[in-house]
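Service request form, structural biology core

Requester: graduate student, group of Dr. S.
Request type: structure prediction, single chain
Budget code: on file
Notes: please return the result as structure tokens.

Sequence provided:
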Amino acid sequence: MSCSIGRFFVPPTFVDLLRHRAEHQPDDTAFIYLADGENEEIRITYRELDRRVRAIAAWLESHGLCGERVLLLYPPGLDFIAAFFGCLYAGAVAVPVYPPRRNRSLERIQAISDNAQAKAALTTAAVRERVDGVIHDTPDLLKLNWLTTSEQEPAPPDDWRRPDISGETLAFLQYTSGSTGTPKGVMLSHSNLMHNSALICHAFEHRRSGTGVYWLPSYHDMGLIGGILQPVFVGRPNVMMSPMAFLQKPYRWPAAISKYRGTTSGGPNFAFDLCVRSITPEQREGLDLSCWEVAFNGAEPVRAETIERFSEYFAPCGFRREAFYPCYGLAEATLIVTGGFVRQAPVLRRFEAESVARGTPRLTEDGGHRVQTLVGCGTPLPDVEVAIVDPQTRRRLGEGEVGEIWVRGPSVAQGYWKNPDATEETFGGILSDSGEGPFMRTGDLGFLLDGELFVTGRIKDMIIVRGVNVYPHDVERTAQRADDRLRPNAGACFTVEEDGRERLVLIQEVERHVKQGFDEIFSAVRRAVSLEHELPLDAVVLIKPGSIPRTSSNKIQRFACRRAYLEGTLSVVAEWRAGAAAPAEATPPGGATSLDSPASLAAAESAGTGGNGSVRGGMESAPGDATGGLQRLREHLAAATDDAWQAAGGGHPRESAGVAADTRTPVAAADRRQIIEAVLEEVRRVGKDRAAGITLDSSIAELGLDSLERMEILASLEERFGGRFPEEVLPDLETARQVVEAVERYLGGGGVEIRNRTAFFQPGQEIPPECWDVERFPEYTALKERLRILEEAGLGNPFFMVHEGITNDRTVIGGREYINYSSYNYLGMSGDPVVIRAVREAVERYGTSVSASRPVSGEKVLHGELERGLAEFLGTEAAVVFVGGHATNETVIGHLLKPGDLILHDALSHNSILQGAILSGARRRPFPHNDWQTADRLLERFRHEYRRVLIVVEGVYSMDGDIPDLPRFVEVKKRHKALLMVDEAHSMGTIGETGRGIGEYHAVNRADVDVWMGTLSKSFGSCGGFIAGRRALVEYLKYTAPGFVFSVGLSPPNAAAALASLRLMQSEPQRVRRLQENAALFLQLARQHGLDTGLSHDSPVVPVILGNSLHSMLLSLALFRRGINVQPIVYPAVPESAARLRFFLTAKHSERQIRDTIDVLCEEMDRIDPAYRSSRLQHSSVE
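Core staff response, request fulfilled:
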């Protein structure tokens, strides 16, 4: 189905278009993401993309989010693309937001969320972990429904149903950068997106045979519309890398164009300049840019000298000057407004500079006048009308007259979300002389000459620094808050052009009493602006109180301030300029000096607002530091339960999935002193005199170094020491000390252990009791205080409750009987009469202990019978038993791997797996939960760097009750010649037709898994662990594994209990069936009653997710009072949005117990949170 939008015939929505691509081009590559900016390819076809998108959309639909706003907090990459289209597929309104940096507040995100009235947030596991660290200072964000789409398919893709949407349906909100308190969301419909995509395709003459190459940020209009929607519109691939990858090594951009034969690519003007400055003649020799047909230039003023320099420098590589394509646009018009013709040279015109300033530009060829060369931005594209209007009289101006640029056409947005006043002001322009309209007022100044648009400046209170929108009042407010000696509402921020670059200047009045301490003021202001806005200031000028230029209505005259600064007529008290050794004292008129530092780039991920020749739109300013603390109870609850909840929750690490987690002691490529000297040397080399006083704890940004220079420093260190910084850590390297630590951790191939060479105490100094008296250990005193807080809050201590008698479907606590859901006694073997009888016989025959390690004198007949029985049960060649499940993983992993090896494990792996990895000394990398694709990609990139690789997954994950796709992991293991280990602690006896675990469940060849691990304490009613696999593996472990050789053997009663349970499981298969029936019934009833059971399926582990730690604890307590024992799992063992109760079902539970439990659970849940079930039941009824 297609429709007409303007003069273009297109599908009505991008949902229809992507579905068409998936159906007719299923195996065509949609996107190629260069994870390292160079060689690490992550490809996705239209079929794969459509599947991921449908899974996300199905989850959104299941939560009733059609028509609701959904935040997208993603780093660059394919995850964002899938989430964005997932919102479109579900009829939800996507709200792209730049994710926060580590340990920064979420104020900006909170402001956007509040304005958008968001109901959910999609992100990656890594970003979610970062958000969780500071989210409690923005409590409204806690109320959102959070989903980490990088971990697994959130819902079955086939559950997706196309919503009732059309071209007029709102697709997403593009938030323009602006005041933190009042962000404006541009409303873009499917028709807007379709029409503008058609315009780009028409203007750039795109065809299916071409390829795009993009490094622009995906949360910004140029990167999103041009880099993601355009290739889907055309049906051809785009090659993508992150902005950070380009800024760190600019060579990567043209290198990707050369390698992938890119035909369309571009960016802000500074990017072209950066390539000329940074790419060496030797690097240039390897490039072939003859394929580059459209080099669009936008996001800041397009400069004629840039076009000439770039064209000349890269001409030997085959680049043609005619490829440059200046264009103009903005987010309020979706993206592009005007453009030229492909394969035609840019239009450059020389004007008398004074005439341009007067608003009546006059062409000149006379060298006697001061000449200003302007670059034309093309002509209005089809269906687009551009009018040049007097902003005061609103009268249309004639050709060659400078006025405000007004635009109308099908690409113009619907307005600003929930902001009628701003919508009327910007989108309601009516020409006073003809009544034509409405037009969208751009706020940009320009003129038309022979149909060509020339942009000359702006009339709005917004300035542009290296392609980034900066609202002056935001910077001024931040500066004034930095020091109470600065007068409020008495500052002005503006830019000046020096050496072809924009410099950011702040002038600010001081209080009358301030006569000294200027160094402190300058430092505080620069630090605050750097942290809040990621903008290094180039100059700070303190002026006398009452001297700043104002209007008669007391408004700051920023233009007059700028003129006074340039003319040197300010009443200066003191000033700081980047590059100056010290702040200057008051200077006489005319004493203003030129700035030495480069203009700032702001956030490293930025690329995208513009003036002359720009495609201008919203840019995210990174939020500032957190300003509030956690509430006292919340803080103590999190701290008090950290380790205990991890134990209760299976010991899952709270780490970033997919991010390198190096378990070794940090290593260095050289002596620590040499690293420090190297880092400081590089900072001084790049920063020159600005870095003269640098120390290890100096903020690099505060020195006046912009993001380009910071990336240059890091790139030089990579070359110097070898290796590569993980991209995700780059934004967090703010001080020289942090850079040193990152060099130690990530760079170099040596294994030199760095020890702390600074002694804790001086010789002869008294050692305080906090270092030798356990009761005085700070961590112990903190624990006692936290437990006291829990008691005072009435929550009690949920740990170490005494259970009297056998723990099964029922338990007795304090003399009262409870229905019990906190036991791993899945098959009721513990306490079974047959098992007890076997234990008694074993004790009478062998005693209570074997009293030695088995290789020495502890071997008993029972050991051999049990090991042979386990091997036969599982279908492996051999098995060996250990005294504990945790010890089994720890010693086996720690023994099989060593430094130089790699351990890939699921992000939700049990603590025993992590401890084994640490013990081994091998490199450890978690992958997102159940994400075999990421594991595959990691090995594709890194396998060659390691001798031996072990992939570790679990059969059933004890936190969520879900099961991995084991056959896929087998494929990955075989493809990369790795070892595969499966921890069957919670899957043995619980899944598979006869309880033989995940191997039976997925019907895999037992030999395809190298290490089968299980425990004896759950389905086998005993205590211990085992390894099953090939005979060679078992023999090697029996003779060499420290946890076996140097440990006492499994006790006779434990061996007998496990052996009897194993035999019972085979002779009474109904136990397994009954367990599985009970689990299925509980899961079914819970979902029918509006309870969120997460990912659980086919297992006896069923969570009930509340998304609120306090509610989880209160609900657990309420159930306990009504005779039901179930443990809460709260933050920080899980993210706050995943706080839950976790139910373990057993074969002993009765149907009556299960139904009663669900009834009581719902009653108590409704008392604690009446909206919880009602909202979910409403969604269910709608479906």
